[in-house]
Amino acid sequence: METFKLLSTFIFLLAYFSFISSPVIHGQNLPQDYVNAHNSARSQVSVAYVTWNTTLAAYAQTYANQRASTCSLIHSNGPYGENLAKGNNNFSGTTAVSLWVAEKVYYDYNTNSCTTGSNCLHYTQVVWHDSVRVGCARVQCTTQAGYYFVICSYDPPGNWVGEYPY
């Protein structure tokens, strides 16, 4: 019995240390990571949280795969709202969302517009009140070593002219 307990403890510790010392492969790129990053921003303006949608994620992945060869920030012109980003050094999905949310400082709620010469439309899409489903994807650029392309698709799409995001 004592040998069994000792062996069990050894196996547990071996598994535990193998797990904590292994690299995180998907860190900050899992569906819940994207959802959490969006919902953190949405909670600041009291709009409904987004949920992960596999149809949107599949759409985003298909488009990301198409963009991987050039990683050009060209919109798909598809049926969904869309945010794109590109970065290097293991650029993560949550980093992309953080960049979009950082545009908040350029959004003027009183005029419902971006400050002159600035972009805030990524931010307004993240917090758009009707956009309650999201799906995102991330690919490594094939022709630009170390760069990653991130896309998030939103349904229903936001950024309707004349409407407030929240």
UniProtKB/TrEMBL annotation:
Keyword Signal listed: yes
Keywords: Disulfide bond, Pathogenesis-related protein, Plant defense, Signal
Keyword Disulfide bond: yes
SMART domains assigned to the protein according to its UniProt record, in alphabetical order: SCP
Residues in SCP domain copies: 29-162
GO cellular component annotations of the record: extracellular region
One of the GO biological process terms: defense response to other organism
Range of residues in the leader sequence: 1-27
Entry-linked InterPro entries: Allrgn_V5/Tpx1_CS (IPR018244), CAP_dom (IPR014044), CAP_sf (IPR035940), CRISP-related (IPR001283)
PROSITE patterns the record matches: CRISP_2
Record family assignment: Belongs to the CRISP family.
Protein name (database record): Defense/immunity protein
Species this chain originates from: Lithospermum erythrorhizon
